[in-house]
Specification:
With about 100 residues, the chain is mainly α. It is built from 3 helices and 2 strands. It has a two-stranded antiparallel sheet. Strand 1 and strand 2 form a beta hairpin. Helix 1 packs antiparallel against helix 2, helix 1 runs parallel beside helix 3 and helix 2 packs antiparallel against helix 3. The longest helix has 25 residues. The chain is elongated, with a radius of gyration of 16 Å. The N and C termini lie far apart (about 35 Å). About 15% of the residues are buried.
């Protein structure tokens, strides 16, 4: 599941890179946003199907819990994919340049 999260994160990066560096027609902008939505769904499925340990005790045993490294990679991929989707939608709407 971590590999899926890494691959969707890389695909999200290339989707954003493609959007920023090339002038896309309107139809391809819609396709790019749809692809980004599919990448988010795949990453959320990877997080839901992750069977490893998600949390561990803190380093100083203070009583709080932190993410394990594999689950942190999945979580970061979800956040990155959501951020890219938000930017793509705002750019398509003309709110940001």
């Amino acid at each position: 599941m971590v590999i899926i999260a890494i691959l969707t994160g890389a695909a999200s990066f290339f989707n954003y890179f493609w959007w920023v560096n090339y002038e896309l027609p309107g139809a391809l902008k819609i396709v790019s946003i749809a692809v980004q939505a599919v990448l988010i769904v795949l990453t959320v499925i990877a997080a839901a199907r992750y069977r490893g340990k998600r949390l561990r005790a803190s380093f100083d045993r203070a009583g709080y819990r932190i993410f394990t490294l594999p689950f942190a990679v999945i979580f970061a991929s979800i956040l990155g994919n959501l951020a890219v989707l938000a930017v793509l939608i705002l750019r398509a709407a003309g709110t940001i340049d």
